[in-house]
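Archive record:
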Amino acid sequence: MKGWGSHAEAVDALAASYQAIAPGDPVRLAKRTSNLFRPRSGTDAPGLDVSGLDGVIAVNIPADSTADGSATADVQGMCTYEALVDELLPLGYIPQVVPQLRTITLGGAVTGLGIESTSFRSGLPHESVVEMDVLTGGGEVVSATPDGDHADLFHAFPNSYGSLGYATRLRIRLEKVPGFVNLRHVRFDDATSAAKTIGDIVEAGSYEGTRVDAIDGTAFEPGEIYLTLAAFTEEEAPTSDYAGQQIYYRSIQERDTDTLTMYDYLWRWDTDWFWCSGAFGAQNTWVRRVWPRRFRRSDVYHRLLALDARIGFSGVLDRVKRIPGHEKVIQDIEVPLEALPEFLSWFDAEIGMRPVWLCPLRATQVWPIYPLRPGETYVNVGFWGQVQVPAGSPPGLLNRRIEEKVHALGGHKSLYSEAFYDEETFDQMYGGDVLASVRARYDPDGRLSTLYEKAVRNS
């Protein structure tokens, strides 16, 4: 662990790097990895020094702590969930929500939103935060809590994507967990039945008398939808290995039940980037045998995607195959549970991309920059790939249609990927008035880009 002394030194280095950036120059993090899927304006300006903010500072486990959320950890903003889990799991704990990809950082999941299969009972990652230190646009590090002097910053920070500052430290609640996870893959022939069952499980916390600790779903075809129900257990049993030759998402169709270690369950989607590793040949039997196990992970595929964007190899293939054009459709959206069947039906007809990922969630309170209604069940729908479009199609044709449909259904979409909203609509959906008020207090000179500039204008 880093310890408090090391953390203080890292914060000082960060503050010094901020002061070294000339007024008017862009303020960015100097980081090696990213889980964003939207372009950003290039710059040669130096970034913020976050090199020392990538670890766990302290773990706080009371002697009588069980599963009541009294155990906490103080974690630096650039600490990845992989590093965080490596510290916590040997102690029998994990964050209350662990996003699917190893290199998502805690600060990134809070300021940019994250989600996973425990979100139906624990909300989104920012809902387990009890305190955070933030480097603001004014160059000051402030400590924000839900009801302190900086409560306005605390509540506005989730989904702000660096437009309000950067988290240097977050104190989060932990969940005590056993060593294994039993899975049950339940098939449904239509989205209406799947949605009803999701609602029943969220309310009861169980399915057919068995406790459900985590739930997500995979829609392979309109008539082939699976809910994967997870029960955390101490009971040892033979476990599957989906970091080797077997592929997790295929197992959902192939077997009714399964058992994973807790560690493998947390990263079950990372090995093959859900199902997107197929685009790189990593699911081919022969390729997989020679593809080193340590390189079967999401950040490797992300770098390969960035390499293709630079050299344009996929564009060459399109021309060879005489494909008129492709549009990247990489999005996570949330719609109210009752709207899920309509959205999936529309998505099948208008976009036609499968599989898609389903993940129920409930917010515990109002968060103004991502205003989900507390206590209401939503379903995150994740879809990531390319769709063929006619030659000469306007930029963002399909993504714009998705935005319109999600908005019409009372939903929202995450902002890690491309967005095309006009500014007025964007401000209505993402708390524009609140953002403006908080920015005026913590970034009076406007040194940080606004959320609209970041998410839509890609600045």
About this structure: The radius of gyration is 22 Å. The chain has a mean pLDDT of 91. The chain has 16 helices and 18 strands.
